[in-house]
Amino acid sequence: MISKFPVHCLSPGCDWKGTYGNAANHHSSCPKFRLQCQNEECQHVCQREDLPMHAASCVKRKVPCPECGMPIKNELMDEHREKGCPHSVEPCPLSCGELLSRSQINLHLHNCPEKAVECQVPGCKRVIKRKNTAAHVVESAVSHFRLQSGEIQRLRREIHEKSNPQNQCGPKEKHSASFRWTIEKFLEFHALHRTKQEPLTSKAFIKTGQRWRGVIDNNSVFLQLRAAANPVTAHIRYNPKISKT
Fold it and tell me: Using alpha carbons only, what angle is made at residue 239 by residues 233 and 242, rounded to the nearest 5 degrees?
């Protein structure tokens, strides 16, 4: 009996009238029923009959990028093609005239004729475009010959010195300095610093334009740069004489 009750559609603008038993079927297809767009993050609500038109132009709808095929939202497609698409075509940044996909630009730059490169002849510091390398070699043939001759002589001298043991020499001492440090009552003074867990340090002295000081720590003696952020030590020869007074 209830299914035969007369009812009408509650959607604004819909004139449908029928029985309660047919209301569910009408509700599922009512063109005036308001629905929300199913695209992610889209909050647009419209009548069912207008939903296909909105969905076709919805800015939140994902469509495949024509270059790489990746699904991208409509509103972000231009930004994706300009900055993110690896297959987007753009001109060489060095203006050589080539049109390349973004994924190939780095590889192209290694061999681009407009790339600035340094001359490979040892001693020649000229920086030229890759396309002008051949012309530079012809123009600088005389200077390159002199540079290469000098390099050959240097290599011969180096080989000769390595092959002749008499020419080999060990490390040489660059600077030497004498440093005298007298500590009265050394044992008491040293014991006091060990109690405080501090090294025993001397006054600073200047050598080769740098300020040095002597340091005794854990019964070892060494020199230290006073202004160094990280302590710099130097090997020294010392002759400690401990005073019993």
Answer: 110
